[in-house]
Amino acid sequence: MSMSTEPLSIETKDVGLAITWRDGHRSLYPHRYLRLQCQCAHCVDEWTRERKLREEDVPQDVRLEDHLVVGNYAIQILWSDGHYDGIYPYRLLRELCPCGACPADKGGQGR
Known about the structure:
Elements: E1 7-13, E2 16-21, E3 26-30, H1 31-36, E4 64-70, E5 74-79, E6 87-89, H2 90-95
Antiparallel strand pairs: 1-2, 2-3, 4-5, 5-6
């Protein structure tokens, strides 16, 4: 795992999920933004990769309730809307970083 995709800390905050990466970068993912990025088979077609989850399907007030570490590569997030199937690899989370310092093509949409 490269330094830039290895988390030092992962915390649930009132405003979203906060990750401090080993290279010192800090990412804050708003709850709903992160919920809409789920890549599980319920949210994205396994074969075509077409998104099945629609924005209107996710409550505006959806919240991350808890997260579980999956091996050395990802977290599984438990959401207030009852969804718990999504596994978010660290590499994907780093690519989705919505901060202004990260390139727009890596996660600027949907904030």
